[in-house]
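Database export, one record per block. Field names are fixed; values are copied verbatim from the stored entry.
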Amino acid sequence: MRRTSTRYLGLPVLTAALLWTGAAAAGGDWVLMGRHGGCAEIADAARPKPALAGVATPEEFAAKARREGHAVKVTEMDLGGARGVAADVPSLGLSVVFVPRAICDRTKGRQ
């Protein structure tokens, strides 16, 4: 009996979820949400965290981390009618939350 690696079993489901999430945010840019509600441009966050360099979407980030050999856990989040994506890369000590720019625009006055 041939053994199948469990590392790749969830890949089709994860890929579908990421594509659906990207479609939900179509027409808008992704930014990173901070722990205390503020938002940051992905390019700005890439300076201290090179793993974010050259990515603009959660899908690109997850794909890049996997290409570099890292395990990535992606979790879709409901943000009051909009979708966010949390991506955890334990081997890099990195956990980021991607949100559509519109979410940050709505929360600017609440900080």
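Remark 1: Residues 8 and 108 are 39 Å apart (CA to CA).
Remark 2: The longest helix spans residues 11-24.
End of record.
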